[in-house]
Amino acid sequence: MELEKRPQGRAQEPPRRSDPEGCVAAAIRVPVRIVVLVLVVPVRMAWDLLVVVGRVLRDTVLRPVGRALAWLARALFVWPLVGVWRYLVVPLAKGAAWLGNVLLVVPAVWVYRWVLTPVGRALARCARVVAAVLAAVGRALYAVAAVLARCLVVVPALWLWSWVLTPVGHALAWCGRGLARCVRMIATGVGTTLYWTVRVLLVLPVLAVWRWVLAPVGRVLAVIGGEVLDALGHAWRIAGYVSLAVGRFLGTLFRWTVAEPARRVYQAVLTPVGHAVRDTVLRPLAEATRGAGRATRRALAAARLSVRQARADVRRVLFGNPPQARPVARREPSVAEARTLGSSTTALTKD
């Protein structure tokens, strides 16, 4: 039964490389990458260092200096120019526009409306009359000239064209076609000869050199160039990782050798000393300063009150006591007083 079974299919063959330059690429890939990596790592580290220094300079020096220069430029150039434009040029321009309108535009409009327009209309009417007369004269002259031209020019020209120029032209055309056919045959033979001469002597050798010399050399150089570019890309990325690792190591070293001791000194030494100085020196000094301020304010208030009282005493001695206002009764009148308005009679029993 097993012998009768047919094979399902051939075993899959391993995939073949499609690039014919595999050996050359494999031979030069590893040495080129090693050499390029050794050359690129210092360059990448120097580049990253320059980038860090440039960012620090940009944030700490160039940006504040640029802002200061921008503010100085605005203060020295922009704001004066804006002031001159707003408060000098614009008012002068408006005044000049109003003056030009009054002195030029209004008189020009008046002259155009009341002088030039009537004169132009009169001249237009005269021109239309003259044009009508001239048109009539021109039509008459044209008719006469047309008759003369037909009799003296057109009829002789037609006769000359029909009986002289046309037969001569046909003969010249037939001769020209024959001559052109001969020239074309000669040119075709010469061109074919030159074509095969150039093809055999120049084109075929150039094609052979291109196909069997330049093309293989170009492929090898292209493979080498591609490998060099790939090596540069890999080396640049690896150098970036190396530079990042070195930067992190230096950052960690700086943190554990400088920043962390400084932080601990600040927390363990400077902060308690600062608190002690604040509690023992600065706070009592501030309390004493505030107490002195309060005492000074109270003394100044007492001095102002004393000056005010002395001034009032001097005014009282010189001018006497000011007159006192009479008290005004605030009570409501009684019913009887309200009816008679405080008198013993009314309006009915007055007489």
TrEMBL record:
<keyword id="KW-1133">Transmembrane helix</keyword>
<feature type="region of interest" description="Disordered">
    <location>
        <begin position="1"/>
        <end position="20"/>
    </location>
</feature>
<protein>
    <recommendedName>
        <fullName>Integral membrane protein</fullName>
    </recommendedName>
</protein>
<keyword id="KW-0812">Transmembrane</keyword>
<feature type="transmembrane region" description="Helical">
    <location>
        <begin position="160"/>
        <end position="180"/>
    </location>
</feature>
<keyword id="KW-0472">Membrane</keyword>
<feature type="region of interest" description="Disordered">
    <location>
        <begin position="323"/>
        <end position="351"/>
    </location>
</feature>
<feature type="transmembrane region" description="Helical">
    <location>
        <begin position="69"/>
        <end position="89"/>
    </location>
</feature>
<feature type="transmembrane region" description="Helical">
    <location>
        <begin position="127"/>
        <end position="148"/>
    </location>
</feature>
<feature type="transmembrane region" description="Helical">
    <location>
        <begin position="234"/>
        <end position="254"/>
    </location>
</feature>
<feature type="transmembrane region" description="Helical">
    <location>
        <begin position="192"/>
        <end position="214"/>
    </location>
</feature>
<feature type="compositionally biased region" description="Polar residues">
    <location>
        <begin position="341"/>
        <end position="351"/>
    </location>
</feature>
<feature type="transmembrane region" description="Helical">
    <location>
        <begin position="95"/>
        <end position="115"/>
    </location>
</feature>
